[in-house]
Each structure stands twice: as C-alpha cells, then as structure tokens.
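Entry:
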Amino acid sequence: MNRKLLLSALLIAVLTLPSFGAETQDLTTDYVTRIQNEISSDIGKLRTSIETELAGISLTSSDVSKRLSELSALTEKASDDMAAWGYTPEQRETHTRILSELSVAYAAYSALMSSPAAISEASVSVDVSSLGNIASPDINTSDALRQEITKVSRGLDVQVFYLQSRLSKLRLDLAEAAALQKQLKEAEEGGQALELPRTHVLDLECARVNVALSRLQVRAQKRAFDANVSSIQRLRRRLADMQEVITFPQKVLDANLEALQERLTALTEEMTSARKALDSANSSLIRARALLGSGDVNILTNASATYTARSARVNYWEHMVSLIDDEITLVREEQQVWRDRYKLFHDQASGEEIWKLRDDSQTRIAELQRQLEGVRTMEGVILRQIEATQAQATAEGVTGTVQQNLIQATDNQRKTISDIFNRYESLIPQAVFLQQRLNSEANDNLSALRLAEKVSSFSKETVLGFLNTELWQGEGYSVTVSKLVIATLVFLSSFFLSSWGSKWIKRRMLSRFKASVTAANAVQRISFYILWIAFALIALNIVQIPLTAFAFMGGAMAVGIGFGMQNIFNNLISGFIVIFSRPFKVNDIVDVAGTQGVVEDIGSRSTTIKTWDGLDVVLPNRYFLENSVTNWTGSDLKKREILKVGVSYDSDSREVEKLLLDVANGHSSVLKNPAPFVIFKNFGDDALEFEIYYWIELRKASGAKVSSDMRHHIAAVFKREGIGIPYPQRDIHIIPEHKEDSENESA
C-alpha cells in the first residue's frame, strides 16, 4: 500500500512540474545546498537508531543467501507446521503472508546490495555526461546549455521528493520495528506467551530487513542526487565562462533561418495532407450521422458506436490542423526572434526598437503560457473522454462491432494526446524559451542604453564648445582644448615610437656592426632622447602650436630644473660620463666603496650591480664619480690572493716553504702564470709566519672557495709531515727571592 501511494505521489509531482524547455528560474545553489544539508542531517539523526535495530541481524551476502534458503524450506513445510501448531485459518493466513513478505524483502535487499546503482523504480537519474563536450561557444551552444541546466535542475526536484519519501519510509520501518521489539520485550518481562510467537518474531525480522533495504535505497539515491548537483554546478560554471567568449556570427544566423525555412516547407506539405484527411473524416462522420437517424447518440448501438469512432477521428484531424497552423506561426515567430537577437547581439537595434522588443516579448510570453494552460486543460478533457469510452467498451454485454468501434474511438483519442498534445508540450515551451532569451538580451541592452543616454545628455554643441575653448593665444596662434588634447596624445605616443626606434637601432648595432653591449646601450639611450624630442616637435607642428606658446613656462622649468630636478639631471649627466669614459662595462666585477659584485646594467640614471649574495643594488651614476671604483676585471680577469699560515718554531722553514708551494701549484684553480710563491714573513710571537701569493681567474673561480680548499690541503699535509700549527702561548719565568732577605726572615 505504501509503495502504491509513493508511486502515485511521485507521478503527480512529475506531471505538475513545469514543462521542459521554458527558461524559468532553476534551482539556486543556496537552495540545493540547503536541501543537501537537511537530507544529510535527517540521515545522520537516524543512523544510531538504524545501527541499534540492525545489531541483532546479520545481512552479509552469505547470510542473506542462507536465510533465503531457510525461508524457502519454511514456506514448503509451512502447512504442516501450522497444522502441528494448531493455527486457526486467520493465523495461517497471517503466517503465510509474513513468510512471503520476508522472502521478498530479503530478495530485494540482496539485489540492491549486489547492484547499488539499481535504485527502485521511483528513482530519477539525470545523465549529464554528454554536456561536457561543448565545442564552439556560439549562441546555439549557450541556448542548449541553458535548456539542459533547466531540465537537470527540475529533475533534482523529483530526486528530492523521492529522497524525502524514502526517508519517510525509513522512519516508518524503524517505528514498526521498535514497536514490535517493545511488544516482544514486554511479553518476555511479563512472562506472558504471545498469541503468535513465531509469527511475531518473523514480523520483527521482516521490519528490520525493510529498515536495511530503505537505508540502502536512501544511500544510493543520495549518491545520485549529489552527483547531479555537482554536474549542475559544473554546467553553471561552464555557462558563466562561456558568456565571456560567446559568438553569434552571420553564418549561425543563416543556418538557423535556413533550418526553420525547411521546417516551414515540411509543415506546409503536412498541412495539405492534414486538411485532406480532415475532409475525408468529415465526410465519413456525415454518413455516420445519417445512419444514426433521429436516435440518441448516447444510446449504445452499432450506429452510435460508429458515430463515436468517426467523431473521435474528426476531432483528431481538427486538432492536428490547428496544431500545424500554430506551429507554422511559432516557426515564423522564431525566425523573427533570431533576427532580433542577432541585431541585439551586434548592437544594431535603436533604443526605441529595444524597448519595443522587450515589451512585445513579455506580452508574447504571457500569451504562450496561457495557450499551454489551455492545451493541458483540453488534454484533461480528452483523458476523461478516454476513461468514459473505455468504460463503455468494457461494459457488460458490449461485444462485436460496437466494442470494436469504441476501441477505435479510444485509439483516436489516445493518438490525439500522443501526436498532438505531446507535440504542443514541446513546441510552446521552446517558443517561450526563445522569447525569454530575447527579453533577457533586450533588458541587458537597455541597461547599457540607459548609461549611454546619461552620457549623451550633454549636447553636441556643449562638447564642441568645450573642445574649442581657447586656453591662451599669442601673435598668429591660439591654443585650444582640442589642440592641446591632440598634442598630448601625439606626445605620449612619441614615447612608444621612440622606444621602438631606439631598440631597432640597438639590434642593428649588435647584429650587423658587432658592437659591444655597453656601446649599444649607450646609443640606444641617446637615440631615444633624440627621437623623442623630434616626435614632440612634430606633434606641436601637427596642431600648429609654435614653441613660443610655451615661452611663459621657461622660467618655471628653469626653477624646477635648478631645485626639484637637480638630482635627476646630475645622475643623467653622470650616466653619460660613465658610458663614454667606460671605467667599467657590463659583466665587469667592481668594488664601489664596499659594494662588490657584477655590473648587470648601465643606465642613463643609475647602474645595477648584482652582489655575491645575489642581491641587485641600484646605485645612482653620480655615486661612481664621487667615490673610488675598483674594477677587478678592467684590464684582465686575474686576481691575486694571499693566504697566511703559521707553524711551530721547531719546524724546518725550508721544508714548510716547499710544502706550501707544492699545495699552491697542485691546486687546479691556481694560475701557473704568474706562478705562485711563498714568503717567510716574520718570526711571530707564537709561530713562524708564512704567506702564499697566488693568482686566480675571476670568471672561473671564487677566491673564498679556493683559499678554503687550500687550507684543507695544508692541514692535511702538515698533519702527515708532523708539522704543528701552534696555539697562542706565553712563557712565565719565576725569579727566586734574594738570599739576604731569606736570612733576615729566618732571624
């Protein structure tokens, strides 16, 4: 009974859903998320009760198979058992029913457990896998995606209904199992035997299996629901991304109009055939009416049954002609809608046309929705006619030709629904969808139009008057706002032109004349300023503004250069001095007042040095003229290094000198020319002091690494030869006391 009620409610929900195709407000993300959370919360609240109830029953695959076999055996010998137990006929019926229900419950649980995807017949599954392959982002693809999103969203409504129904069924199963368990417990505690103890235990087992079955159905449907929600969210994101790059070329419009024209041609031919069929059906109806005579059509006779069948056929063709006529109208409207959408997409519609399109589309949407409601009302009328005709055909005593005519009338009525009203259910929502898209796109254009109207509220005369406003004038010239704007634009563009031209000159110098990087950079900077000044003069000449127009600015510029721009010009001049005097070049290793590193770039205002720590230090060019600069790679790449070593006083100085010289000559990074040499520097306080002088090439070796490596070698050699490196030490001499002082002290 519960299953029948559930399926009936589901059928009502599906039939009352808005028709697929109309672009209404689909499920929002917030709504879907809230529903997901509510369902998850409901499932979580039932989890403890389910686990408690199922603790006393084993539902593994092997246990279920074993129990099904036991139930089959119990069913076979149930008659003998119930006779031995002395069951009454009513008790026999109850026991047999519970055995059957328990076997069905176990079988359903086993089937669902082996195939979780096989949800019950009321489940709704939406396949969105094909929607992931969207090739071209044109307007047809966008429309199709919108319709699919709406369809899938409405499918979720049915899934939510089914999930909630399954949860309600699960709660009922839990309540039933709890009630049976309570009865059994009370009977055991009271020491009273139940009237049907065996039947009661089986009934409790059946309730528990139903709980497990409902739990599996809820889980399977919840997974399907979550998967479809994720698919819809992905499709919405894809649609949002598509809106940025959507296209509507002329070829798409032409293809759509051509397809609609072909459809019009086919509909015209179909209309001709339908009118002929209608004329033939009317002729047959007239003849049937004549055979009926003056009799009552409601009295069931052979003539009246024939009249009913032919009347149903006439109604079919009348509806068909009306349908084709409406479809021709809708196709012609669709052609115009596509033309209007093309104009809106490419901003070819005037403001008045956009307002009219929006209002007309709103009116047409309302008309189409009323037409769809009328179609559904008429469909209900025909469904009632089918029910009445079927009742007549199956009435007692109705046979032969009368029954055949009534069945034929029923078939025509069913064809009216399947061929005509179902076709309306597809045509009208599609027309509504296109009108809604037109309305939405018109509203979008109106938003932009309102903004444009606000901007254009200034009259053309006002704008022109502002552009022609005279700022200042002199002898033979005047400077207006428009001239100044044009000059500014040309002046700014001169930066880009000068930059491009100077870079081209640099590339030519490097590739054709094989100039150095430093020289090419210098020429690039000089040519940039020359080109920039030339373009600036050209800009002034284009707008006919003489240089004398800016004479009044000379004093202000002089003051600015003398104070605010002093440092800038100082660095610029210093940069040119550095570039032409070339105390160093790019990739040289320099030391400027403690800042050591490789020269990365020599600019007109500053120079960049990358230190040994990998830091870029930007120094103003005047800094190189005001401080001493050490160029380690100016003439060559060789650098002398000094390594100091101290040995104990008991060491052989000549042997030490020889060992140190061997270590220096044996190192791969120490240059052979100039050759390294060792100096016996001094007799130190604690050791004999030696110094090793050697040269390295800066591009190939690091002084710190080479000196560290040599110290390791020296330590190893000294250890092997028994030469010690002494610690700092002090010798303390104790002077004895005077003899006379000792004698006086004894006395």
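The chain has five domains: 2-242, 250-455, 473-564, 585-631, 638-721.
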